[in-house]
Amino acid sequence: MIIRKINGTYLPEADRVLLRITVENDDLGKDQFQFIFTRKIVKSMIQAFKTRIDENTFAAKGGKNNESKIEKNPSEISHVFGPHLVKNFSLSKTQSSFLMSLNLNKSQKFQMHCAPRILALLFNLFIKLQEKASWDLNYILSSTKRKQVKKVLKPVKRTLH
Predict the structure, then answer these.
(1) SS3 of the chain: helix, strand, coil, percent, to 5
(2) Of all helices (H) and strands (E), which one includes residue 35?
(3) Where does the chain have alpha helices with state H?
(4) Is the torsion defined by CA of 119, 55, 60, 26 positive or negative?
(5) Number of Cβ atoms within 10 Å of the Cβ of 20
(6) Smallest Cα–Cα separation from 6: which of 160, 154, 159?
(7) What number is the average pLDDT over the span 26-48?
(8) Which distant-in-sequence residues (6+ apart) come within 8 Å of 111 by Cβ?
(9) Bridge-partner residues for 85, per DSSP?
(10) DSSP sequence for 43-58
(11) Exposed / middle / buried, residue 66 (Cβ in 10 Å: 0-12, 13-18, 19+)
């Protein structure tokens, strides 16, 4: 599966964030996964993404590896793709990408291999959503780090539309 679109929305009535990930299957069909994030999970994600930025991971220049892939085992996640409440989050570095794991209800797990540019896009999206929610999650980026994220994001905006 290859990511084709990522969309986030703040849900004020629930004080949660809804993330939609549209993917293209191997048979060229499209699926959409929907995840609901609490303030606590968004804060931990922003901190994890910020740590990767501080390590200059996002600034690394790589080939044209803009695609991110999702590994989904039908027994791990129900056929109805959401919305699922995210209970826990982890982010780890692999050789050429990052592995983002979302732990859902009933011991279900969603894992996504993210290229650095997709991770930067998610970071920027969560920053904007938490600002819209007025959560004030105390993320602090120096102007140099903000420029690094923006520089990485420019090519992504063109390729994801």
Answers:
(1) 35, 30, 35
(2) strand 30-37
(3) 39-54, 116-132, 143-160
(4) negative
(5) 16
(6) 160
(7) 86
(8) 70, 71, 72, 99, 100, 101, 102
(9) 36
(10) HHHHHHHHHHHHTT-T
(11) middle
CB 152 within 8 A of CB 124: no
Tens digits of residue pLDDT in 45-65: 988 888 876 665 554 444 444
Query: Is residue 36's pLDDT more than 90?
Result: yes
CB 103 within 8 A of CB 87: yes
CA 80/CA 98 separation, integer angstroms: 26
Given phi > 0 = left and psi -120 to 50 = alpha, else beta, which region is 112?
Answer: beta
Structure tokens given for 102: 């979302």
- CB of 19 within 8 A of CB of 85? no
Which pair of tokens denotes residue 53?
């930025």
Dihedral sign computed on CA atoms, order 136, 137, 143, 148: negative
Structure tokens at 44: 């931990």
The answer to whether 124 and 108 have CB atoms below 8 angstroms apart is no
